[in-house]
Amino acid sequence: MATPSLLLLLLFFFLFLFSSNVAAKQTRFYRSMSPTSLGLHKEKLTHLHFYFHDVVSGPNPSAIIVAQAQTTKNSPTLFGALAVSDDALTVGPEPNSKVVGKAQGMYAFASHNEIGLVMAMNLEFSEGKYNGSTLSLFGRNPVLKKVREIPIVGGSGVFRFAHGYAELKTEWFNITSGNAVVEYNYNNISPSGEAQPPPFLFFFFYFHNVVNGPNLTALRVAQAQTTSFGAVNVVDNPLKIGPESSSKVIGKAQGMRLGY
Ligand SMILES: *[C@@H]1O[C@H](CO)[C@@H](O)[C@H](O)[C@H]1NC(C)=O
Ligand SMILES: *[C@@H]1O[C@H](CO)[C@@H](O)[C@H](O)[C@H]1NC(C)=O
Ligand SMILES: *[C@@H]1O[C@H](CO)[C@@H](O)[C@H](O)[C@H]1NC(C)=O
User: Can you give the pTM of this predicted structure?
Assistant: First the structure.
């Protein structure tokens, strides 16, 4: 039979264990784990093929412009417009084709000189073994080009650790209504294996952000009433070899910048 002092000792022991556990939880937010426990030993290439329906007009649009700059209405390329989408993904190009998922996210018109979108979207699938799994894509979409390529930056569910790219081709585009159907071909690797490390490159350039003057490269399209926290800017900033405004342009940084 345990004596009261032994009981007390056991109680302290458990209290100590408990408190050291709490301390461990408070100071550590990481632990190492085996990659194979997450299925990282095998690599599987999946090809997905579907159509993306972007309906921007009519009684039931699936993509809506939520913000734009004051100058956007005068821009032939809609520079500064920001849209939120819940677009259907279907097996065929017809409007009544079977829906296999949704493309939920944002796209911004982020180019001065062409209709060029920056897309930040999650594709959520609703069919069979893909039901509930998502792929995240982030990239540049110059919509009038015949073929565009957008990186897949990750995924969830059966697409955990996914990476790959999507090739987009416009199936049809109605210039009057703005509605479009786009064919998506995805080459997707998931889960990733031991990929070759990419070659190491060092880039060096200047990012020119012009927020004053006649030709702005960054436009404020939305903001909170009180602070710069919450500001949304759409940018098409030139990347130049040097800091001078006359310096040679070697690229563009097109996208969104959020103030926080
Ligand atoms: C997909 O999953 C949801 C939620 O689990 C379920 O309600 C739905 O019936 C599933 N759809 C298909 C086609 O399996
Ligand atoms: C294009 O959209 C307009 C406006 O909604 C519509 O009247 C027209 O029929 C559409 N054209 C085609 C080829 O679908
Ligand atoms: C405005 O600036 C952008 C970015 O530098 C450039 O591409 C565009 O041609 C300029 N537009 C005009 C009208 O100067």
Answer: 0.76
